Amino acid sequence: MFLLQLGAAIGMTYTMTWSGGPTQALVAKAQIAGDHARMDYPGMYYLITRGVTSVTVVDTAKRTYYQMDYGSLQKSLSGIAQIDYSGVAINVQRVSPDSTIDGYTTQHWRLTDDHTQTMSMMIVHNTTKSHAVEDFYFAPAFKDDLNPFMKSMGRQSSSSPSAADYTAKLEAAYAQMYNGVPLLMVMHVTSDKQEMTMTGRISDIKRASIAASVFEIPSGYQKIDMPTDTLSKVASALNDSLKKAGVTPTTSSNGSPLAGVASDAASAAVDKAKQKIHSILHVP
Asked: What is the Cα–Cα distance from 23 to 26, expressed in whole angstroms?
């Protein structure tokens, strides 16, 4: 039996653990009630609302927060890198039989994603061919609960028409899968003969009374601009300086940023870039 406090709602809490990939294991604590979710990481947390494209990022150490809007994020990222996709093939299938995880019946869904990605960032041009297999184990018992991890699963930077088309196809594929919370996610990616496997696991699921204040910005926190806006300005400044220094883009597949460029031109470009970056960031 739950004792519901004033201003609270019955929701769920759980622990999300990501392992594998290029970084160490990442652990998040989730609190979800109705249309609201909060994901706590060390030193920060995210606030997510069903039906809202933006995410609020709260830095508890600096006592600041900002809105991460996908539209603005895509616009900012387009100033840093252009990404093009070709040979896109995305498929979704239901895998039988069903399985049980921590006593919960789950439905197994598999998404396969094949594509070639070409990224142009300042003077770097790199092309990679990827094959991804993503397995999701959804628990029907939580089909009505908001799942913050699937909210942005298909979001990519739409820095080109082909990237926008790829994003639309990926989001349509995720929409075909079962709603709710996946207790297990296994993603295996092969890219240019390199392989990586990441595993996401939800555990310690509990129903609990969650106060409305959990999903609010604490009093005294300062709102700041999304950091990507500054990053876009820095990248633009660096790119302009490199061009003025006579550095031309390379088309090599290894992504070497200064292939075939004289060292004195590169050095001059970096020096000019530093001056512009310092003025943007207001540092000495």
From this structure: 8
CA angle 102, 104, 110 (to 5 degrees): 100
CATH for 8-222 is 2.50.20
Locate 213 and state its tokens. Answer: 């204040």
C-beta of residue 215 within 8 angstroms of C-beta of residue 36: yes
Can you count the helices (H) and strands (E) in the chain? 5, 12
Whole-prediction pTM value? Answer: 0.72
Q: Are 131 and 55 in contact (CB under 8 A)?
A: no
| Domain boundaries defined on the chain | 8-222, 226-281
CA distance 224 to 278: 19
How far apart, in whole angstroms, are the C-alpha atoms of residue 190 and residue 115? 11
SS3 state of residue 223:
strand
Distance, CA of 12 to CA of 61 (rounded, Å): 26
Contact partners, residue 8, CB within 8 Å, separation at least 6: 33, 209, 210, 211, 212
The first and second tokens of residue 135, run together, are: 């397995």
What is the β-pairing status of strands 194-211 and 182-191?
antiparallel
Q: Tens digits of per-residue pLDDT, 130-154?
A: 999 999 999 988 887 777 765 554 4
The whole-angstrom separation of Cα 259 and Cα 34 is 53
In degrees and rounded to multiples of 5, residue 26 shows phi and psi of: -115, 130
